[in-house]
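Tip: read the tokens left to right.
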């Protein structure tokens, strides 16, 4: 149904078709001081870490976190809440689905 399609138009024609972008670009180019001010924006520590690629290594999924529990003769493992959103429902409701 969909085929590859290429459109070749000039930058000027593309700007005419995007009036809001055209207005913003024209405003930036006509006010060189503001453009220079935007170019020299100081970076905070978060931005510089991204630019310097000094981010900490991502860790893998720790998996499930179970705590052994015992109630008289019943021994089981309880799922600890690690802050994740977990939805629980009674077994009787699940069987009716």
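Filled-in amino acids:
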């Amino acid at each position: 149904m969909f085929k590859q399609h290429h459109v070749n138009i000039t930058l000027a024609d593309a700007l005419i078709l995007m009036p809001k972008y055209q207005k913003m670009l024209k405003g930036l180019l006509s006010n060189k001081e503001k453009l220079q001010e935007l170019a020299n924006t100081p970076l905070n520590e978060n931005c510089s870490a991204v630019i310097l690629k000094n981010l900490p290594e991502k860790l893998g999924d720790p998996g499930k976190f179970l705590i052994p529990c015992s109630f008289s003769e019943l021994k089981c493992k309880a799922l600890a809440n690690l802050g994740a959103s977990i939805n629980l429902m009674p077994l009787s409701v699940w069987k009716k689905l």
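Strands lie at 66-71, 74-79. Helices lie at 11-17, 19-30, 32-39, 45-51, 91-96.
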